[in-house]
Known about the structure:
Elements: E1 4-9, H1 20-29, E2 32-39, H2 44-54, E3 58-62, H3 76-83, E4 89-98, H4 106-123, E5 127-132, H5 135-144, E6 152-154, H6 161-169, E7 172-176, H7 186-194, E8 200-202, H8 224-235, H9 239-253
Parallel strand pairs: 1-2, 2-3, 3-4, 4-5, 5-6, 6-7, 7-8
Helix pairs in contact: 8-9
Amino acid sequence: MIELFDTHTHLDAPQFDEDREDTIARAVEAGVTRMINIGFNRETIPTTMKLAEKYDFIYAAVGWHPVDAVTMKDGDLDWIASLCSHEKVVAIGEIGLDYYWDTSPKDVQHHVLRQQIGLARELNMPIVIHNRDAHEDIVKILREEKASEVGGVMHSFSGSWETAKMCLNMGFHISFGGPITFKNAKQPKEVLAEVPMDRLLIETDSPYLTPHPYRGKRNESGYVKLVAEAAAEIKGVSVEEIASITTQNALERFGIR
Length: 257
């Protein structure tokens, strides 16, 4: 039995309201031994904490998503800080920049991201970075805010190898999901081939970014096995080796014993 670690999932999403427990059971049956659920705004942070407290193998990351940056109020950063002392909270995230969805002004996104990197440095917590169409600014802010002091994860990485190298040099792990199973996803596959094995992570981002052959349907954590299989093929190793290495990488990155 292989042991898989889904480092980024949203099991509290409304898409799972009808079969959440069954979805989690299917993931366990597929070999998923640990998951990190992401709480990213005022609504999903509490539901993420409930999941982490209910299941011993589900951990939490809490932060403010760039799409929701404009909704962050005074006191929310303190709220995130208070939750970081919880034994099941292992990272601040997902945080970052999103230039695709026009919901929060860029200057607001930048401010909220910088605040949260500062908090992560203060608390010595890794960060989970969301980056959509903002590669240059992400790298710039990570450097300026000395994110290398805590490191973290570049979630669902979609940038170039040049960008990946800059992130690796700042101590980040690079995480890949469903897109590496897509036939036309040339760049993610090329980047994954170059990422050192000891800095590689896998994820689903469920219910989004569903891997082939279920593309177009709801994603779920059990499908991280398909991501592992694709990564194994790209790396030219067994799926057992990918599962073992990425699980160990995640345990070390998030400080899980």
